Amino acid sequence: MSASRLSDADQTRVQQAIQEQQQVAQVQQAIARLTDRCWDKCMANAKLGNKLDGSDTACIANCANRFLDTSLLLMKRMVEKQQGQL
Questions:
Q1: Looking at residue 4, what DSSP letter applies?
Q2: What structural domains does the chain harbor?
């Protein structure tokens, strides 16, 4: 069935499903970037064993929090800029 044969409601549902999948992919990419960045930053000189020590855990938590704070700030600025252009 081609997209032109779908009802308007079905086309809307398909578009929403596509947007949701794109959002999921973006979140997964952000998590992968966060993991790579924080692992490289915090674990470069760590002694790997069965468990992370307290300083490694704190470093990863701090790194993740800063990454999320920065990401949220950038998204907020982008939305504000976009709304200013409307």
A1: G
A2: 3-84 (1.10.287.810)
